[in-house]
Specification:
Helix content is 68%, strand content 0%. With 94 residues, it is mainly α. Helix 2 crosses helix 5 and helix 3 crosses helix 4. The mean pLDDT is 92.
């Protein structure tokens, strides 16, 4: 996981990766990720990881935790926090 370490240590590269993932999740290209888009992304990640899907409480909890401006959606900076935490979790031994 050396590549993840390098990515996390490079703020510019991290922003690029977060923006690329954000653009994939932002299906309506509104510049914001809403609850439905977050739900679809979290369910897809769970499926690909072979894990049970997140509960509705999990999904709304993630949105509320990351939505710093309280507008009910995530902008790219708020979303980058999620991407960073997911990458850090990948580095943790299971």
């Amino acid at each position: 996981m050396e590549g993840i370490d390098e990515l996390l240590a490079d703020p510019l590269k991290m922003k690029e990766v977060a923006k690329a993932v954000f653009d994939e999740v932002d299906k309506d290209q509104s510049g914001q990720i809403d609850l439905q888009e977050l739900r679809m992304a979290m369910q897809q990640v769970a499926r690909e990881a072979g894990m049970p899907g997140p509960s509705e409480a999990d999904i709304t909890g993630v949105l509320q935790a990351l939505d710093k401006d309280g507008n009910g959606t995530l902008d790219v900076d708020e979303f980058q926090v999620l991407i960073t935490e997911v990458l850090k979790a990948l580095l943790r031994p299971s």
